[in-house]
Amino acid sequence: MKKAKEKRSNAIWSVILGILSILYMYPIVMILFNSLKDERAISTNTAFQLPTAETFAGLANYVNAINAQGFLKSLGYSLFITVTSVAAILLFCAMCSWYITRVKTKFAQGLYFLFAFSMVVPFQMVMFTLSQTADMLDLNTPWNIWVIYLGFGAGLAVFMFAGFMKSIPLEVEEASMIDGCNPIQTFFMIVMPMLKPTMVSVGILEAMWVWNDYLLPTLVLDIKKYRTIPMLIQYFRGSYGRVEMGPMMACIMLTVIPIVIVYLAGQKHIIKGVAAGAVKG
Amino acid sequence: MASITFKNVVKTYDNGVTVVPDLNLEIKDKEFIVLVGPSGCGKSTTLRMIAGLEDVSSGELIIGDKVVNTVPPKDRDIAMVFQSYALYPHMTVRDNMAFALKLRKEPQEEIDKKVNEAAKILELEKYLDRKPKALSGGQRQRVALGRAMVRKPAVFLLDEPLSNLDAKLRTEMRSQIAALHKRLETTFVYVTHDQTEAMTMGDRIVVMKDGFVQQFDTPQNLYNYPCNMFVAGFIGSPQMNFLNVTVEKAAEGQVLVFGDSRISVNKPELEAYIGKEVVMGVRPEDIHANSAAHVGEPAEYTAFINHMEMMGSENYLYLDAYGQKMLARIPARYEFSEDTTVTLAIDTGKIHVFDKETTNIICH
């Protein structure tokens, strides 16, 4: 009796979640189809139609997207910014959380609240002063914009790292000190490896955000010289309001694919990492 | 190989709480010392001060012939086994044990040799390539021991290493650790709250309470000659009986009056207490069902059996004697039953008398 009831509720949930996932997937699937269609076939009337024999354009849009606007260069910028930003966030925030959780002073406590508070402040509130400051400090190139990303990413990262680190028994670090580690060695040889699940989940969350971010690089970077991929997509709008729909769709697909791969590879760790701080292992 | 000396050591935490008010202790080289006491008595803090994990607020801590107050843990030539094992979860058993040696940059062959040797002694050879989470509690504890062993430290510190194990394994590990001490011939400092562990393992035992050393002596002396009521009650299981008695002058010596029972003793120390109430301590095993097995004069008294516990070879009798509770350990061959009144005898050669106010010993 109970089993049958359970089965039925499972079925209902499957249907609900199935519909939800279709709703989420639909725009991406639509973009995928349209990216394979001839440009004339992408209009408000025909946007929802599947590609047919006549409208199917093969990979022409993709070739176009890659060649036309300096896609590879933008890809390089995006990749570089994402990698450096995420690496900086992981390294510095892990160290910072270690300090915050292990040093029990009012200063450390205050620091923690500051980090948590920074998550609450909306980006729009600081963006104009930020672009000024970035110019003043010469932080307006892809090579050093990671400093700014470090600042914005630190709130979430410190919050998650600190949550997990509280569950690591202090004895392990004490044992390493007795075994002969100095604090730097203890961090890199003992604490960092134990943080791995949280590292992966923080890394993926931050990577998705930095990779897809449009507003911050637009405000900070010199638009004429440096375009990240989200910025580039915009430039398929030509003059006189003409939009190169086909290559644009192709470009969006090319942007989405890497981050989806990263997410799929690490999704197991995301759940582990998020749960790790909350539940004592 | 090193001795450890505490000279007027004080430990006060940042929040102003003093856990160790004034500690003086001399631990000899190659000794197995057990620090024992109820939780919060400062025994773990004392051990952590030796390890260098807690600062010494004032006084001198000497390992070997060096004052180590400011020496970091890694330079003290000590090894520590923690209650929670504190193994490195991301390393295999082999790497856990080799970690300290690798940090010291010892040659790889040397490391392999030492790790394999330790693994053989601790019967861990099969598990060398496993991660700690794939091991049972007892195996993890052995890895922690192995990690400490391979370094051949001058001082071996153990912080309640057996309290996470089940009773059977605990007994087994107890003898393993004792054997390890014999083999390694180094100074062992062992912290526990379990008096059985302390009695069975220590060469000498430090009984602590509220940060003060109550008594520092061999297990036999602690058992036979406790210096106050705390030590008398803490060492020995089941606990010593404490009975309020009055001292009276007799023709020869004194008499301890306990209900209808009058126990004759002859101790000059008791002269000062004539007419006063004192506490008489009697261990449950020094109460006998007949008069044959006594060392001193048997002193008979009657008691009511409230409750009885069968332990197999012996019975625990929970008694009510002249309004005072007491416990007797009687061999199972004597048949008693609950809710009856019996006559038992206290071995007067084994009684302890304590001052009621100071709780210190008056005479044994």
Q: Report the β-strand fraction of chain B as a percent range.
A: 35-45%
- The radius of gyration of chain B is 25 Å
Structural class, judged by helices and strands of chain A? Answer: mainly alpha
Number of domains of chain A: 2
Portion of residues in beta strands of chain A equals under 5%
The fold-level CATH name of the largest domain in chain A is MetI-like fold
**Structure classification of chain B:** alpha+beta
Mean pLDDT of chain A: 85
Query: Helical proportion of chain B?
Result: 10-25%
The overall strand count of chain B is 21
Q: Per the principal axes of the C-alpha atoms, what is the gross shape of chain A?
A: globular
Shape of chain B: elongated
So what's the CATH class of the largest domain in chain B? Alpha Beta
Reconstruct the topology from this structure:
The complex is a heterodimer of chains A (281) and B (364).
Chain A: H1 2-35, H2 60-68, H3 71-102, H4 106-118, H5 123-136, H6 146-165, H7 170-179, H8 183-194, H9 196-212, H10 215-220, H11 229-234, H12 245-278
Helix pairs in contact in A: 1-12, 2-12, 3-4, 3-6, 3-9, 4-6, 6-9, 6-12, 7-8, 9-12
Chain B: E1 4-12, E2 18-27, E3 32-36, H1 43-51, E4 58-63, E5 66-67, E6 78-81, H2 93-103, H3 108-121, H4 137-149, E7 155-159, H5 167-184, E8 187-192, H6 195-201, E9 204-209, E10 212-217, H7 219-224, H8 229-234, E11 241-249, E12 254-258, E13 261-265, E14 277-282, E15 287-288, E16 298-310, E17 314-321, E18 324-331, E19 341-347, E20 352-354, E21 361-363
Parallel strand pairs in B: 3-8, 3-9, 6-7, 7-8
Antiparallel strand pairs in B: 1-2, 1-4, 4-5, 9-10, 11-12, 11-14, 12-13, 14-20, 15-19, 16-17, 16-19, 17-18, 20-21
Helix pairs in contact in B: 2-3, 2-4
